[in-house]
Amino acid sequence: MLTTVLMIVSVMVGLALVLNTIRLLIGPSTADRILALDTLYINSIALIVLLGLYFASDMYFESALLIAMLGFVSTAALAKYMLRGDIIE
C-alpha cells in the first residue's frame, strides 16, 4: 500500500517539476523565473525524500538537506543581485 502511494506521489511531484521547468523557461519576468527556480529546488527535495522513504535509506535525507541549503543560498544571492546588481559588496 505504501509503495503504491509513494509511486503516485512521485509521479505528481515529477509533473510539478516539469511544469516548473516550463515556467522557468518561458517566465515573463526575472522574478517569475527566480520563483520557479526556488520551487524546483523544493520539488526536487520532495522527490529525494520520497525516494528515501521508498528505498529506506538515510543517505537520501542527507542529500535533500544539502540541496535545501544550496537552494536557500542561491535564492538569497539571486534576490540580492536583483536588488543591488552586485552580490559581494
Give a written overview of the molecule.
This protein has three helices and no strands. It has 89 residues and is mainly alpha-helical. It has one domain (2-83): Helix Hairpins (Orthogonal Bundle). Helix 1 runs antiparallel to helix 2. The N and C termini lie far apart (54 Å). The mean pLDDT is 90.
Write the SSE topology.
Blueprint: H1 2-26, H2 30-55, H3 59-84
Helix pairs in contact: 1-2, 2-3
Would you summarize the structure shown here?
With 89 residues, this protein is mainly α. Helices cover 87% and strands 0% of the residues.
Q: Kindly estimate the percentage of residues that lie in beta strands according to DSSP.
A: under 5%
Please report the number of helical segments.
Answer: 3
In the CATH hierarchy, the architecture is Orthogonal Bundle
- Distance between the first and last residues' Cα: 54 Å
**What do we call the CATH topology?**
Helix Hairpins
- Biggest β-sheet description: none
Assigned CATH class:
Mainly Alpha
Our Rg estimate from Cα atoms comes to 15 Å
Total tally of structural domains = 1
**What is the number of E strands?**
0
Order of H and E elements: HHH
Instruction: Give the low-confidence spans.
Output: none
* Helix proportion: over 70%
